[in-house]
Amino acid sequence: MTRLLRNAQRPIWLMLAAFALTGEAPPGWVTVYATQQAPVLSGFAAVQPGTDVSITALQQGVLISLTVAPGESVQPGQTIARLGGPEIAAALVDAQGASHAANATLAAELSKFTDHLSTQAAVAQASANAQAAKARLAALQAATLLQSPVAGQIQSLAAGPGAALLPGQAVAVVQPDSGAWVSAVLYDPQAATLVPGTAARFIPADGQPAESVTLRGVLNRQADGGFVLAFSGSALQQNEAGTLSLTLPPRKVLLVPSEALVLDDGRWWVMLHGSKGDHAVQVVPGEAQGAQTPILSGLTAGDQVIVQDAALLYHRGIAALYQPPN
User: Fold this and answer.
1) For all residues of the chain together, what is the average pLDDT?
2) Cβ contact 27:309 at 8 Å
3) pLDDT at 246
4) pLDDT score for 69
5) Dihedral of the CA atoms 231, 235, 238, 243 (nearest 10)?
6) Residue 35 C-alpha from the chain's centroid
7) Distance from C-alpha of 288 to C-alpha of 295, rounded to nearest angstrom
């Protein structure tokens, strides 16, 4: 990726003049292609040796039921309360509508593709949108169930049926049994769509073998935006720290060489090559995967993206928009 330096030592007009005088052929380009990619979420994690766990609301709503009392035993994944109310009901209706609409769009694109009226890129985009809408709906449905991430005893209750809750507000505190659990912090927005039962790996920092763990729930969201998740495992060593790695289902993405991206004033651009000339297009990139970067929006499969001297061409296009002073 190329970052534009506003105070670069070499003036841009000098670079443009040198480019014009060399008479070089147009820079090389590549064709954007779609491929399958399995995103990996990772973040700091630590084994918690039986520390108390607060079960909090992840959405605004009303506590419509509470099935436990202080002193009662709970199992990992056991539902202890349900969240309802007009706010979460409206959010569910919106999410269901968005999922139905995305599925309908996908079905329409598939039908048009069969009749040679659509492109593979359009089908891939519709499929990705449908999967994302489904994940958001599943995460919202999971948020209506407040579950214990660990085995233990209910130590205290902070709210009762009928209580209006805000995101992050505690409902109960669980004192875990002897078994340890993993607390992990993920900053990727996709962490909000994870559902209990998702498999992951805890990789100890001391070089010990990775251990399989299972997501039990999202505990809360930190002030800095990080999602705190709880995972259970069968062979966890107390006080061990490391990395939590979680692989999401494969999805179709568009990849471009990272060097084709140009950052200007907080926005990412690429230079498209076409029969009518070269022009800049704003894009939204994902996290770079080595020498390639996935593009979340702004391009379609088959586009031709300039790689060589992309920043120089981008600057030349901007310079052409301005008239020199008299």
Assistant:
1) 81
2) yes
3) 94
4) 92
5) -50
6) 18
7) 9
